[in-house]
Amino acid sequence: xxxxxxxxxxxxRIDDLKRYEEDDDILNLALCYAIxxxxxxxGYTGEGYEAKYHMNALQGAVDWLGRLGGNEYTSxxxxxxxxxxxxxxxxxxxxxxxxYFL
Length: 102
What we know:
Layout: H1 2-12, H2 24-42, H3 54-67, E1 76-78, E2 81-83, H4 90-93
Antiparallel strand pairs: 1-2
Helix pairs in contact: 1-2, 1-3, 2-3
């Protein structure tokens, strides 16, 4: 699976996510989550996902991995670092639902 290889490259360069680099199970789960969310938004029922959303799937997997343990906080601050999660992450917001094409 090409996506898994590419996701490994991405997480290997993100300090907070390096611990997942060799965990194929969690990386595949992250990819499945992202692809599932893209397909739900598109109403796509085929195998895999539409190729034009390849980078969205990778971004979604990275986003999901980054949120592990965060319980979907809408905002938090610790030691001067703060994070706010959007309701719809940018990687998913850029996936256009099919109704927009009508």
